[in-house]
Structures are given as structure tokens and as C-alpha cells.
UniProtKB/TrEMBL annotation:
<comment type="similarity">
    <text>Belongs to the PEP-utilizing enzyme family.</text>
</comment>
<dbReference type="GO" id="GO:0016301">
    <property type="term" value="F:kinase activity"/>
</dbReference>
<keyword id="KW-0479">Metal-binding</keyword>
<feature type="active site" description="Proton donor">
    <location>
        <position position="843"/>
    </location>
</feature>
<dbReference type="InterPro" id="IPR013815">
    <property type="entry name" value="ATP_grasp_subdomain_1"/>
</dbReference>
<feature type="binding site">
    <location>
        <position position="629"/>
    </location>
    <ligand>
        <name>substrate</name>
    </ligand>
</feature>
<feature type="binding site">
    <location>
        <position position="781"/>
    </location>
    <ligand>
        <name>substrate</name>
    </ligand>
</feature>
<keyword id="KW-0670">Pyruvate</keyword>
<feature type="binding site">
    <location>
        <position position="781"/>
    </location>
    <ligand>
        <name>Mg(2+)</name>
    </ligand>
</feature>
<dbReference type="GO" id="GO:0050242">
    <property type="term" value="F:pyruvate, phosphate dikinase activity"/>
</dbReference>
<dbReference type="Pfam" id="PF01326">
    <property type="entry name" value="PPDK_N"/>
</dbReference>
<keyword id="KW-0808">Transferase</keyword>
<feature type="binding site">
    <location>
        <position position="778"/>
    </location>
    <ligand>
        <name>substrate</name>
    </ligand>
</feature>
<dbReference type="GO" id="GO:0046872">
    <property type="term" value="F:metal ion binding"/>
</dbReference>
<feature type="active site" description="Tele-phosphohistidine intermediate">
    <location>
        <position position="467"/>
    </location>
</feature>
<keyword id="KW-0418">Kinase</keyword>
<dbReference type="Pfam" id="PF02896">
    <property type="entry name" value="PEP-utilizers_C"/>
</dbReference>
Amino acid sequence: TQYVYRFGGGVSDGGKGDKNLLGGKGSNLAEMASIGLPVPPGFTISTAMCSRYYAEGERFPDSLREEVANGLAHIEGITGKRFGDVSDPLLVSVRSGARVSMPGMMDTVLNLGLNDETVEGLATIAGDPRFAWDSYRRFIQMYSDVVLGLDHGRFEEALEIAKEDRGVHLDTDLGADDWRRLTVRYKELVEEELGRPFPQDVHEQLWGAVGAVFGSWQSERAKVYRRLNAIPADWGTAVNVQAMVFGNMGETSATGVAFTRNPATGERAYYGEYLINAQGEDVVAGIRTPQYLTRIARETAGARAASMEESMPEVYAELARVFDLLEGHYRDMQDIEFTVERGKLFMLQTRSGKRTARAALRIAVEMASEGLISEEEAVLRIDPSALDQLLHPTLDPAAERNVIAKGLPASPGAASGAAVFDADTAEKRATLGEKVILVRTETSPEDIHGMHAAQGILTARGGMTSHAAVVARGMGRPCVSGAGSVFIDLGQRLLRVGGVEVREGETITIDGTSGEVMLGEVATVQPELVGDFGTLMVWADKVRRLRVRTNAETPADCRTAREFGAEGIGLCRTEHMFFDAGRITAVRQMILAEDEGGRRAALTKLLPEQRGDFEEIFRIMAGLPVTIRLLDPPLHEFLPHSEAEFADVAQAAGITVDVLRRRVGELHEFNPMLGHRGCRLGITYPEIYEMQARAIFEAAATVAAESGEAPIPEIMVPLVGTRAELRIIRELIERTAKAVFDEQGKSVDYRVGTMIELPRAALLANQIAEEAQFFSFGTNDLTQTTLGVSRDDAGRFLTTYVEKGIFERDPFVSIDEDGVGQLISLAAERGRTVKPDLKLGICGEHGGDPTSIDFCERTGLDYVSASPYRVPIARLAAAQSAL
Ligand code: ADP
Ligand code: MG
Ligand code: MG
């Protein structure tokens, strides 16, 4: 097998289709080279080698040495330089690159090939000793950190001392001799720490770096990142070895990163940052504050330092041409790394850029309007789950804001929480249920877990492409970066800004859309679903087959859901209405009654209340189907649990505390999930379901009379396991309907159906379908009853099960297709054999989960039902699964 793939100088052994083998970076370097862009030549060692490296005890096969030698020869042939040559040395970078980008997670070494001899050659050939020694000190530090595993703290310290000695502040103020002296100090440090000298053999350097890049795949931070992003461990990383180009060759050299469109807003404008006389790492690490790429961006920010458009107009024009070319070629927004060496542009990386949900929408819609992609592609471009970011509240523009600082709007959205100053504290407090904002001078990959636990992130340093900004956007966390006036005092655990002090634990609010940082909590408002969002939803609805309903029982939820495009209610849980303060007393009276007469008396009080609820819902949902589930939970859930409440409840119910205690005891169940609940209540206490059916029919008749658009009630019987259960209750409902319609002298359309949430019901769906006009899969209970796992108790082992790969995903989040899914398709098929027009839907939590929605599409269900805020997500997911 071949493990080494070349690129550059008219050769491309791979291309953009080879991500799995060459990693994202490697395949795109090859692709850029093949379309004629200026890419420094190099080669990629494939991800397959990474797997083999680990399989064989972290060793390289001999055949690889030969392939790498050929790869080096390829670079030498094109550059005319030789690796290790003392007069004109070839220097390379050794870069990691997995299938998907893992920003800052993995290691890279620059300027490899320098030693005490080649550095002299480099100085002479470049005619610039300062540059050569600057490169060498960078190399020693990076190599010591990445390959030799030394803490970079002591190196930083040595650099600070060197600057102090010379009385300067910036790295760029140091000269050749300063850097030369620093390399001596650095090498001493290595020897002190390691007991052996810094490696001078360039081949030893190369193999050390290759091993370290493969090694970084198994680093702790990479593992955490993989877990958070569901990246399989066996993908491995590729290694890219590439000729160095130098952005640190003086004032005509530079390095930068750019997006072809704004990654925060999606605006069609180049967005980027660059640094003159610097190497790539400097931009991301926030060593100096980078300058803007475009004049517009500089002016908008009110920045003084010249933009690249102004300071290097020719290179900028060339770069802009490359941006357009790459965007057209990849048909997507690109995230690009480049370096300018003495006025000549080189491309070092391109990939589809990470973006906020808002930017994703705008970019997809605009690219479709520009004709770059089709409407269907635009629909497919948006990750449905990412819409979540947009569906949640933003800061109320009318609310008072006590702004204490301003930074860059690095990742949009608003967040409030307790200020915390390190990742561990963030995680600890979040686990205890507290909302926190992680405040750091700047973040590094070690902070990932804290960023994930936090509601939002605030940094004092770093630009729009800093680690904090990139990671926050990827995670969908609001972020304000580079709030320069914020000073964090880790010792005293507080932050200072202007005259204000915020201690750890005090609440602050950040607005990642404006960059503002505020004291205290600021009120929020609902977002409006207009503009690009609206456009994309129209496109999605055009291709969608599945209908989308909502799970809602309060008027407010019903209204939200309708605004979000719900096409009916798939699950209205009547028990929520029973808990209402005004009626819990009557509910308890009903439960505590000793006989049917007592129960009926209490139910008579509840009837008008329930009728009122349904009227309100029917009015909001005029013309749409409304599925109402009859009472489902076991009755004891409505009774008080603590002795303290007993006296009050007994008095309100007109019984003694002793009687109450006895009834509570009688109603106690060992396993309520499988107990006296669902249709079992309707079978034993028919008067309860009779009251509910009556309330539904009376409300429907009233609303039908007052509006032209009658609602279509669908009465749903829960927890049915046998045909007989459903028959008995269906007959009860029909009798009640007839009675109401006779009294009112008119009738309304309605349907009777059942939830399929017991395996027996799924297996006998053909029998049950004889009694039902619709099935709704109650996948929460169906998952519990099929897996024999109680959702409320699963927390203790489910995470371990997912970690060990026993379940691929949490079966309560995404349908267990092999098991539960099989029951669903079987029930759908058996039900439809009996009734071809049987309406099929799903109303569990899974109805808002994109993966499960895809399953519903494949299984041919008619609709999914999701919680109100997930309705747009479900609409988009349904459209994507139809494409
Ligand atoms: P990451 O994945 O962390 O971005 P990279 O491998 O892309 O790591 O490299 C880190 C930095 O070094 C980037 O800014 C990149 O542009 C720069 N760099 C990498 N290879 C070279 C090279 N051959 N010449 C000049 N700069 C390079
Ligand atoms: Mg990079
Ligand atoms: Mg259920």
C-alpha cells in the first residue's frame, strides 16, 4: 500500500475527494495545487498510516522511510533546496490534519530542518540573519513543546527576560543577535530538562515530528474534542510535510487567515486578519493584535493600523482573486490560511468555514440567489440542530443595559451567568445546575470542557479567529472576544474593568452579536422568523413530505408553535391541565372519592374547566387537527407526597387526614410506569374519560359555531395493549359524542385513535387498527417498554452504555432503529394492511430529533410532532430527509 501522496509543482496525487485518506488539510492542499494555486510543495502521509502506527505499537514500517525519502525528493526537486543542506537548507512544516477540522486540537511544527549549521546557511542565503535566528528560536520552542513534551512556560519566560534586557515590548523589536542568544538559552533549557541536547540531525527531527503528530491524535484534549463532536477514534490523522514559506522575512512578508464571507453574520464580504513580519501561529495565538484585511473592516472597527488592502494592494488583489476562485470551486464559504513571502502569496490551507447558524442561513440563501447552489442544496446546507441557536431569545433592545466593556462580536447570541475564571470551575458549577460565563484572558484547547459547560465565553485577548471565537462558533455558544479593557485577576478571583470589579460568581451578561459585556442579567425577547430564515423555511416546505405538528397544551405554546409553522397538535397532554391551581382540589376530590357517585360529583366541577381549555386551544388551532390524549398518569401523581401538605388537602377534600393517608397508601404503586395508568384508568373509571370526551365535543361544537374553521379533534387513547381495551373506550367516546351532538342539535368531525407505546400493541397492530382511525407512536414509552429501561433511572448507566458503544446514541434522544424502529415499521405495515388510510404519526421526544425524523420519513409516517421550539428544526429535517 501507498502511504505517501505528493502535491505541488504540477503534481497532485490526491484531491478534495480524498478527505478520509488524506485528511481535510491534505486533500485540500492537493486540490488547490491541482487548480493552479500557489501551494508550497509537500506530501501527505495518509490516515491509514496512523491506524497502522497504533496497531503496530507506535512504530513506523520500513517501507515508510523509503516513501518519505521520495516525498522529500519531490519537494527538493521543486524548491531546488536540500533538506539538511548547510548552504541552502530546505525547511518544512509538519502538520496534522484529520478528516474533519479540530481547531487547535492537534499539533504542528514549523521551520523544521534548522540546526546550528543550517541556520547560518539560511541567514546567508536569505541575506537576513534576523529572520534566520527568529525562525530557529521558533523552531526550538515549538519542537520542544510538541515533540519533546517540555512545558513552554520556561521558554516564554526566557523570551520575556530577553525583551526586558533590551527594554522592548514586541517580539519584532528584537534583532538577530537577540534571537541568536535566545536560541542558546533555549538549547540550554532543553538540556537541563531532558538531560540530552536538542536534536541536530534533521532526519531525527522529521521523524520525531511525524511521530508527535500521530501521537497528538491520542492526546487528552483531542479525545475530549472527539467525544463532544462524535468523531470516531479510528479515523486517525494524516501528517502533512510541506516546504516552509516565510511570513517573517520583514516588512514585505506577512501571514493571515481569512473567510470568504463573514462567519458571524454571513455577509458577503471578505473577512480576515493578518500580521506583517510574522509566522502563522502568531495570528491565532494572539501574540500581537492582528490587522484587518479589508479597508472597510478596518474603518468599521475604527482601527488605525493599515489594512492589507491598503498596505499591500497588489498582494491583496491577488488574494481576493483566489478567494473568489476557491469559493466558486468549492461552492461554499472557505476558511483560508495564507502567507506572503517577500511580496509573493502562498496558500497554506482552505476548508469550508465554520459559521454561526445565522451566517449559515444567510450564506445558503444568498448562494442560491447568486446561482452558485440550488435551493435544494441550500436546504441541505443547514444543520437543523443548529437552528436552535436562532430560535432562542435575544437581548431585549428596550431593556436597560449596564455596559462595562466592549469586545469583538465573535459568536452571536446573548447569555447571562455567573462569571467564572477557569474551565474546571465552569464545569463544576454547571454540573450543579448553575449558569456560568467563562471569562479568560484567552482560551486554549485545554479549556474546551469549560467552554462547553458555559452559557457563553468572554476573552480579554484575541481576534475573530482566535481559539475562543472559532470554538464558540462551532459549539453555538455566544462569545465576546478581545475585550481589551477587561483585566482578570486570577489570584483574587475577580475581573476589573474601568472602575468596576466583578467577583467570581457575580452575574454578567454578554451579547455575542454586539460585543457588549453587561453587569447583571438583561431581559430577553423572542426572535422573529423572518428574512433568510423565512426564505429557507419556504424552500424546505416545498420539498417536505412529512407534516409537522407540535406537542403543546398551553395557549402560549400553541401560539408559539403556530408561529413556528406547526400544522396541528400531535400531542396535547390533558393531565397538565389537571395540575392547575384552580382545579387540583376538584381533581383530588375525584381521586379520593370512595365511589362512582363521588367521582362524578367532582368531575362535574372539572368539566367546564376542561371545556374552557379545549376551546382556547381549538381557537388557536382553527382548521388544524388537534390530537388530545386522554388522562395518562397514575392518579397518585396528583396527591400530596409530604405529611406537611396532608392537613390542607384533607380539609379541602372534606375528609380526615387518616382517610387521606389511607387512600394515598392504597394508591401507592411499586412501578407506576407499568401500573394503573393510561387506558387502564378509562377502563376502571369510565366516568373520567367520559367527562374528557364530553369537554372535547362541547368545546369543538362551540368553536365550530363561532368560526367557520372547525377544529378536527383526534381523541387519543394511551397505553393500549389489546384490541378490547380500545373497543370499550372507543364505544364510550362514540356514545358521548352522540349524546353531545343530540343535545346541541349539530355534530363535528372527529377521530378516535390510539398511541402505540407497548410492544404488544405494535405486534397486534392489525387487530388494533380495526378500532382506530390513527396511530401515534409514543416513542418515549415504547422505548422504555421495548428496552426494559426506565428513562428516569437510566441516567446511572446510559452514558457508560453510549461510551462503550453498546448503544450508538442515547435511545431516548434518537430512535433505536434496530429495536424500537423495527416495532414501529412493523406496526405501520400491519396497521395499514387493515386500514390503508390509517393516519400514522409520532409524538415522543424523538419527533424533534433530525435522525429520528429521517427514520420516520423512511418508514412512511404521515407526520412528526415536536415541542414548539423544535418545530422549525423538524420542518427542515423533514425536508432534508425527503431530498
Ligand atoms: P492548525 O491546524 O492548527 O491550523 P496548521 O498545520 O494549519 O495547524 O499550521 C499552523 C500555522 O502554521 C498556520 O497558521 C499555518 O498557516 C502555518 N503553516 C503551516 N505550514 C506552513 C508552511 N509550510 N509555511 C508557512 N506557514 C505554515
Ligand atoms: Mg491551519
Ligand atoms: Mg406514554
